[in-house]
Amino acid sequence: MQKPLITNRFVERFNLSTPIALAPMALANGGNLAAACARAGALSLVGGGYGDLVWTQREYSEAISLLDGNQDNLSRLGCGFISWKLAEDRSAFDWLLDQPQKPAAVMLSFGDPTAFAKILSDLNIPVICQIQTMAQLPQALDAGASVIVAQGTEAGGHGMNEREGRNTFTFVPEIADWLAKHSPQTILLAAGGIADGRGLAAAMTLGADGALIGSRLWATTQSLATESAKNIALQASGDDTTRSSIFDILRGKNWPEQFDFRAIRNKLHRKWEGRIDELRSDPAAAMEDYASGAGQEDYDRAHITVGQDVGLINDISSAEEVIDNIGQEAARLLNGGNTGKIATRRLA
């Protein structure tokens, strides 16, 4: 790992070379991608997602194996879970906490994190809470979060619906101002629409200590997404994505009403737009069509999970290259276009 060009409390707290965290993308962010990001100096969160025990065991164990006992790299490896799903089945969460290598952090998203955050805090494992509204911020802090992720609706995959959600550009500075007044020790990460050094530099200028990045690292050689899905994403722009509950219904995912899902707006999605209640009341045939499409990698009938920053993704390269490029570009911009090590802190 190279020495950091950007140094701040997030970098120092998690032994990073760049203020980037890998988003714990369910089913896309497995052991190979997580290990690559940890080696590259990012905080690396395996996509524990829905808490599938077998999947989490396999992928987290692969990351541990690929890091081959290197304690620096292992110190950057953690996991992420969906809080409402953990309330139904916490077996993967419990398995993770029983491992000899303590996770660097655990991220909790979508739902009340309190019960699980207390368990983590009692074990001195840093708690990262992802939020989508200002109203969720006090709950996350009361639960014991030492890192807050401010997720805008630009993000791919699950997030707050467009009516209640926030744009990253206004959400991050509002949270930064609130934290500076009420909880200045709390680290803040921005999420949603950040795919390059410009986005990372902008987020940090707005008051974030770094960024949680999903879509850009989804589009890497180590991601579990299929090659055909990645190649389709390369041809897409941000205009080609949309948020709705359609793909959750088609996959039988019973998400709380306030959260929905951003993906590429394909033929199957267009078919059901304006007919969501009809789809929800009788989904069987549509679910079968979706499952067939997914099995055949037919992305007119199956979803591709990317955010509005998909139009900024121009190649499928390694995670190490992506992280280095983002970090280098952000450092130049934050340093006024000059090279050299810089230090940044959010003002309290």
Structure description:
This protein has 2 domains: 6-225 and 314-343, TIM Barrel (Alpha-Beta Barrel), CATH 3.20.20; 227-295, no CATH class. It contains 17 helices and 13 strands. It has helices spanning 9-13, 31-39, 53-67, 71-74, 83-86, 91-97, 114-122, 137-143, 168-182, 197-205, 215-218, 227-234, 246-251, 267-272, 276-281, 284-295, 319-334; strands spanning 6-7, 20-22, 43-49, 77-82, 106-109, 127-131, 147-151, 157-160, 187-191, 210-213, 241-244, 259-264, 342-343. The chain has an 8-stranded parallel β-barrel with strand order 2-3-4-5-6-7-9-10, surrounded by 7 helices. A 3-stranded antiparallel beta sheet has the order 8-12-11. α2 (31-39) runs parallel beside α3 and α10 (197-205) packs across α17 (319-334). The mean pLDDT is 93.
Q: What's the arrangement of secondary structure elements?
A:
Layout: E1 6-7, H1 9-13, E2 20-22, H2 31-39, E3 43-49, H3 53-67, H4 71-74, E4 77-82, H5 83-86, H6 91-97, E5 106-109, H7 114-122, E6 127-131, H8 137-143, E7 147-151, E8 157-160, H9 168-182, E9 187-191, H10 197-205, E10 210-213, H11 215-218, H12 227-234, E11 241-244, H13 246-251, E12 259-264, H14 267-272, H15 276-281, H16 284-295, H17 319-334, E13 342-343
Parallel strand pairs: 1-13, 2-3, 2-10, 3-4, 4-5, 5-6, 6-7, 7-9, 9-10
Antiparallel strand pairs: 8-12, 11-12
Radius of gyration: 19 Å
Distance between the termini: 30 Å
Main sheet characteristics = 8 strands, parallel, barrel
Report strand order across the widest sheet.
2-3-4-5-6-7-9-10
* Structure annotation, total helices: 17
Work out the helicity level. 40-55%
CATH architecture of the largest domain: Alpha-Beta Barrel
Assigned CATH class of the largest domain: Alpha Beta
Global mean pLDDT: 93
